Amino acid sequence: MPLIRTEFIIQAPVDRCFDLARSIDIHAASASQTRERAIAGRTTGLIELGETVTWEAVHFGIRQRLTARIAELERPYYFVDEMVHGAFKRFRHTHEFVAVAEGTHMIDTFDYESPFGLLGRIADALFLEKYMKRFLIRRNEYIKKMAEHGILQENPSSGEGS
């Protein structure tokens, strides 16, 4: 059961980082390499407590769908999304935001379990954990870039700028 933790210092206010991290539009833009798009539930804007989003994407050459629900949210300090349906056996993804002198310390913790027992653990060791860590780092680097440039949403019609 891998636990992936990444940390970034972002030179931007906590509330901006928090909103960017829960933006459906920013997530889709950050995962464009997998053709990720929201197809059900909240499909644009900022996801809120109790809401779900269903993502469709291509990973390892296979089109997949995953539904996640915002299980906990305390603005602007943290939120947690958990898998409802999808390829994992389970996951819990915690996003934390701490105000620091430089701006925001963003801590991202992805705790997941692969399906298929021993085969899933072998897949984790061989490639899946590395793949997921790269995916999360790429997403968080994108959030950092958007936050430091003062961008609030990827979609200009939803209020770009600070």
UniProtKB/TrEMBL annotation:
Superkingdom, natural source: Bacteria
GO biological process: cell division
Residue ranges annotated for the Coenzyme Q-binding protein COQ10 START domain, each copy included: 42-122
Segments forming a coiled coil: none
Keywords annotated in UniProt: Cell cycle, Cell division
A Pfam family recorded for this sequence: Polyketide_cyc
Identification of the protein by name: Cell division protein
Naturally occurring in which organism (per UniProt): Paenibacillus rigui
